[in-house]
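Researcher: I'm preparing a figure for a lab meeting and need a structural model of a single chain. I don't have an experimental structure, so a prediction will have to do for now. The sequence is pasted below. Please return the structure as C-alpha cells so I can convert it later.
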Amino acid sequence: MSDCAEIAAPEPVFAEPWHAQVFAVTVALNEAGRFVWPEWAARFSETLKRNGLSRDLDGGDDYFHAWLETLETFLAEQGAALPGDVADVQSAWEDAYLTTPHGQPVRLPQGR
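Model: Understood. Here is the structure written out cell by cell.
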C-alpha cells in the first residue's frame, strides 16, 4: 500500500471546447483594441438580463450562448461580422462537418 494520497485531476475550466474558444476570441479582440473590457462587461450584463439569466450561472451553455450573442452583436455593430455573413459561415461549417468522413479534418470550401 502506498502512503501517498491519490490526487484527483483538476476539473476543466470550461465545460465545452467552444466555451473556451469564444472566451479566447473575446479576450483577443479586447487585447487588439476592438473594445474596452468595462464596455464588454456592461453589454454582457445587459444580454444576461434580457435573456432572463439573472440566477447564479455556472458557466454552462446558457451563459456562453449569452456571451456569444453579445460578441456577435458587438461585432455586427462595428461592421466586422454582419449577421448574414455569420449565418453563411455557420451554414457552410454545418454542411462541411455533416459531409466530412469520420476521422477526417473538417474544412470549409475555398473562398470561405
